[in-house]
Task: inverse folding
């Protein structure tokens, strides 16, 4: 019973540490999250920037898992390419070593736990304030205090090997196997991290075990290597519901860490000797000898491994891309319709060329939002519930992605406008802002149509053949308007001489809307269908008419630019 109680106490201590880490990380992300997301989305133009960005963001928010999950979401949204994501993930591995240094420098040298309750005394009143910023700061203080309380509990509850010779005997049978023992502890570190879902907690546990003499430095280092593999599970879980590119990014994290661990294991003894030499040089002593600060040496190993591994593996980025691309193949499902293509490489040499890139991206953005309307039409005509749910999920995802892409294009245009622009280019920039806003509204409208169809399905509402035909007629006109809009975008800002066809189509949509509305009133009075069916029917008609308004606004904005004889 004593052993069971000790194990449960240790697990509870780890849980306490994890909760503190989670609270602190969440608070840090609330304080700096949006800025960190902006940094991640923009600072990826070259490999060095990607590495530094990943390291900086992870050091600030104290969670490599949070960073990699953000990266996966950006890749899923098309805001970051697979190659860019790999560089940031490499940097995140460096940033995550900051936790080990905090623990080894503060958690072992200073009695931070004794200050935990006074820190909480400051944090609790702050959490009761109305100000969100002060509440978050209170959460940060409490998370910090709980983190070190948890660490203190972990240190106190790691088994005392001197009083438990049976445990020592059990461990000794697995610690003298040379390289087999090293591989075993790599596996232990991997499995522990996968179970605990936090490399920080496993690193803290490893530091305590090493400091208490439970395991030797070389086996503790092996556990750290395993923790680098185990920590990749979070991003892979997050990517399970994402698109192919996001799943590849998550897998790239695993591949990168596995390859890193493999080459270090091949050079294990020389690498450990190098770390020992550096540790001795900085005054921490040789970790293979007694009376040395072994936790500093282990933190040094953690940092040196991740830094050297990153600057070795960065040269093999293209091979990592090829590997994950082969392992996760693209299926022809149409899911990969949203991705920035033209403005991911940064600014061009002149404002005119940069705006041309933006124009190409806008045209692509429009096509992809138009695709959402095609999916809505498939949903309207389909009868398979499973397919309907799958299509609605795609619409929901694409609507969210369209919001992000609008912001990315707008940010790019804003950067262009910071330069010295001619009067014509100033008007062009203004027109582009209006166009992307209206295109995003088209995506919103398609999403609203999908939601209305979902409501129809959930309430088991049936349309008769006349209602179905009338709505298809309306959708046909809207589709024609979208095709005209797309054609106008293709003609560009210099070749569009008139938009009469766009106006005619908009007029047809309005006339059709009025006809169907009048017809609907008569049908309700004559009891041809239920009021609930009529409500859904009119909601679809009205949303289709709104969609027509957004479409004509795009053509008008293009025409306004072309009338100014822009480039």
Result:
């Amino acid at each position: 019973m004593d052993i069971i109680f000790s194990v449960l106490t240790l697990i509870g201590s780890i849980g306490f540490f994890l909760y503190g880490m989670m609270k602190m990380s969440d608070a840090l992300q609330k304080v700096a999250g949006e800025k960190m997301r902006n940094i991640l989305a923009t600072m990826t133009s070259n490999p060095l920037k990607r590495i530094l960005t990943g390291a900086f963001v992870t050091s600030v928010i104290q969670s490599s898992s949070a960073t990699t999950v953000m990266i996966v979401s950006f890749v899923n949204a098309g805001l970051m390419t697979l190659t860019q994501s790999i560089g940031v993930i490499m940097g995140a591995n460096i940033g995550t070593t900051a936790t080990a240094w905090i623990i080894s420098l503060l958690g072992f040298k200073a009695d931070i736990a004794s200050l935990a309750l006074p820190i909480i005394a400051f944090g609790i009143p702050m959490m009761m304030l109305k100000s969100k910023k002060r509440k978050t700061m209170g959460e940060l203080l409490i998370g910090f205090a709980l983190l070190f309380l948890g660490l203190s509990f972990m240190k106190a509850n790691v088994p005392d090997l001197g009083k438990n010779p049976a445990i020592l005997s059990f461990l000794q049978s697995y610690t003298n196997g040379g390289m087999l023992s090293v591989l075993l502890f790599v596996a232990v570190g991997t499995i522990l991290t996968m179970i605990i879902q936090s490399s920080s907690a496993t690193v803290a546990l490893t530091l305590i075990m090493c400091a208490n003499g439970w395991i030797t430095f070389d086996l503790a280092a092996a556990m750290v290597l395993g923790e680098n593999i185990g920590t990749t599970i979070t991003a892979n879980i997050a990517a399970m519901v994402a698109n192919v590119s996001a799943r590849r990014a998550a897998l790239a994290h695993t591949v990168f860490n596995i390859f890193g661990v493999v080459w270090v294991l091949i050079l294990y003894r020389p690498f450990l000797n190098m770390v020992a030499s550096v540790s001795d040089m900085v005054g921490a002593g040789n970790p293979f000898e007694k009376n040395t600060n072994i936790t500093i040496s282990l933190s040094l190993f953690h940092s040196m491994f991740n830094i050297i591994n990153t600057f070795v593996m960065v040269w093999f980025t293209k091979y990592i891309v090829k590997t994950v691309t082969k392992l996760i193949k693209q299926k022809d499902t149409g899911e990969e319709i949203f991705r920035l293509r033209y403005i991911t490489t940064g600014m061009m040499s002149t404002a005119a060329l940069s705006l041309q890139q933006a124009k190409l991206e806008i045209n692509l953005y429009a096509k992809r939002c138009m695709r959402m309307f095609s999916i809505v039409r498939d949903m309207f005509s389909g009868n398979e519930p499973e397919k309907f749910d799958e299509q609605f999920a795609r619409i929901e995802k694409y609507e969210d992605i369209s919001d992000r892409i609008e912001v990315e294009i707008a940010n790019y245009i804003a950067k262009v406008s910071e330069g010295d622009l001619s009067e014509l280019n100033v008007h062009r920039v203004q027109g582009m802002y209006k166009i992307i806003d209206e295109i995003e509204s088209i995506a919103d409208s398609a999403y609203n149509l999908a939601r209305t169809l979902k409501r129809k399905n959930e309430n088991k509402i049936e349309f008769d053949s006349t209602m179905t035909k009338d709505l298809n007629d309306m959708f046909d006109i809207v589709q024609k308007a979208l095709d005209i809009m797309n054609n106008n975008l293709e003609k560009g800002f210099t070749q569009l001489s008139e938009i009469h066809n766009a106006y005619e189509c908009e007029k047809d949509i309005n006339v059709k809307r009025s006809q169907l509305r009048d017809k609907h009133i008569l049908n309700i009075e004559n009891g041809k269908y239920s009021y609930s069916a009529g409500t859904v029917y009119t909601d679809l008609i009205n949303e289709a008419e709104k969609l027509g308004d957004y479409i004509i606004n795009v053509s008008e904005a293009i025409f306004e630019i072309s009338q100014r004889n822009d480039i």
